[in-house]
Design a protein that fits this description.
With 266 residues, the protein is α/β, with parallel strands linked by helices. It has 8 helices and 14 strands. The protein has one domain: Ribonuclease Z/Hydroxyacylglutathione hydrolase-like (Metallo-beta-lactamase, Chain A). The chain binds zinc ion (2 copies). One zinc ion binds next to helix 2.
Length: 266
């Protein structure tokens, strides 16, 4: 499997950063299949720079929770799938399989039917024909011939984390989360865990998020083989080395920091 970090930042942009960290999204490719985990603002544009045709891909979308920084490009993605790419005529393009926490069907309907200025998505167009929504909360999500996805709840606005197993390799994506040991069980012995590390230390920690000591504790209990830190707030900027040091003092798991367009192959 090939993993590309599309967006590795939080909702707050950092004008000081040399390289922009944009909103959350991870692309995974297994053979000819492409799946996306979260789809924050700007994801479609970035997928096009990766030469991914979003009229066809992703085949699957997995949402960790419904916060804006993780979901906003879902709206243009669904709308664009209604159009023929060559003629621009209205037709029904490739349907998208969407998996997300409880509330997915209601959220989908709220956006495309209940927001009055956007309800042409259910009148002139029909969002129901291009979206197949599946609500998941714990355990099995989807099993295919060469891969399977499972999930568990995490402490962040009823969010969930996902685990992908394929050909004896495993990848876990936590989404946003506060300290929650359920992720240790889901991610047990995982090869790579993309884990949120929103803040650089205990004193700056806010909301349901993680900082390096909490990340290290989770990685240790879960016996993760390697972790990649993502969802970094601007306050992390310039403190990356000390964050890695702090984690490495507490656990012997491999630690690195994600950046937009970082790619790894498992
Ligand atoms: Zn977030
Ligand atoms: Zn969030």
């Amino acid at each position: 499997m090939r993993i590309t970090f599309v967006g590795t930042g939080s909702i707050i942009p950092n004008p000081k950063a040399i390289h922009l960290r944009s909103y959350s999204s991870i692309l995974i490719e297994i053979g000819s299949e492409k799946m996306l985990f979260d789809i924050g603002p700007g994801t479609l544009h970035k997928l096009h720079t990766l030469k991914i045709n979003t009229q066809i891909y992703p085949d699957y979308l997995f949402l960790t929770h419904y916060h804006i920084d993780h979901t906003l490009d879902y709206i243009p993605l669904v709308k664009s799938r209604h159009f023929n790419q060559k003629t621009c005529d209205v037709g029904i393009g490739k349907p998208l399989m969407v998996f997300g926490p409880i509330g997915l069907k209601r959220w989908n309907k709220d956006i495309f039917q209940n927001i009055s200025k956007w309800n042409y998505m259910s009148k002139e167009l029909d969002y129901r024909k291009v979206t197949n929504c599946f609500e998941v909360s714990n355990g099995n999500v989807l099993t295919k011939k060469n891969w399977k996805i499972t999930c568990c709840p995490v402490d962040h606005d009823d969010g969930i984390a996902f685990r992908l197993d394929s050909n004896g390799k495993s990848f876990v994506y936590t989404g946003d989360m506060g300290y929650d040991e359920r992720i240790c069980k889901l991610g047990k012995n995982a090869d790579v865990v993309a884990i949120e590390c929103s803040f650089p230390d205990k004193k700056s920690l806010k909301g349901k998020h993680l900082e390096p000591e909490l990340v290290a504790n989770i990685a240790k209990i879960g016996n993760f083989k390697s972790i990649i830190l993502t969802h970094l707030y601007p306050i992390v900027y310039g403190k990356e080395k000390s964050i890695i040091k702090t984690i490495q003092k507490l656990t012997d798991c491999k630690v690195s920091i994600a950046h937009d367009f970082k790619t790894i192959t498992l």
